Automatic annotation (TrEMBL):
It is found in: Membrane. The keyword Cytoplasm does not apply. Keywords: Membrane, Transmembrane, Transmembrane helix. One of its GO terms (molecular function) is protein-membrane adaptor activity. InterPro entries: SUN1-5, SUN_dom. This is SUN domain-containing protein. Residues 69-233 form the SUN domain. It comes from Cryptotermes secundus. PROSITE patterns: SUN. GO terms for cellular component: meiotic nuclear membrane microtubule tethering complex. It comes from the Eukaryota.
Amino acid sequence: MEVHVLKQEVHFLKTELSNELLNLRDQFQGDFSNVLRGVDIGDYNSREVLRIFEETSKKTVKDQIEFYDATKTGHLDFALGSLGGSIVSTRGTTDYKSHSGTSAHSVQHIIQSCVMPGECWAFKGSGAVVIRLIGKVNITAVSIEHVSRDLLPKGAIKNAPKDFSVWGLDSLNDKGHCFGNFSYDINGNPLQYFRIQEASANSFQLIELKIHNNHGNPTYTCLYRFRVHGIIGHPTLTQTVSN
């Protein structure tokens, strides 16, 4: 990976982790107070108290790192297929097929955790997809991830989504609630986080992503990963997850 790509990734990580470090500091202070309240200084010397605090702190850091490594955003993805998210409909969107007549990857790929160059859902022009989340969620943000332009052939970044909107649905025939209109910046970080513009008091299990255009590719648009963030209401995890 080239140096400027690494710099871009480091900048992204620093931005995303800054708030987490503040949260960790507050949590450490709380843990330390709990330790002091939970031990009798007459029975435990200062070395023992520090040992307990160190073990608690290490576990907290380990848990935070593992969670961030799994999500990349520090926020749970309620659309993730391995958690029980699923594709409901693509609203008649036409998959793009190569000259050999084969499609690159199915729409299922956009709710999978692996993002590699070329492994995307490719479709002609604009498109839409309806996703069933793992439960009813009060939506607060969404994320779109594309492969870095530095890892793609020259000009290939033009197939990245540009303008898109996100909708909450009660059913496939529902007009829906529009959470806002957004734009993916191909000059920004590969993974971009968008806070919703129009909040709703309702929780939704069906979310529709409408991609209106791309950055200049006249043949097809390529979507790698779409995430949905928020606060869970009533989880309806699949049998696989519950086991």
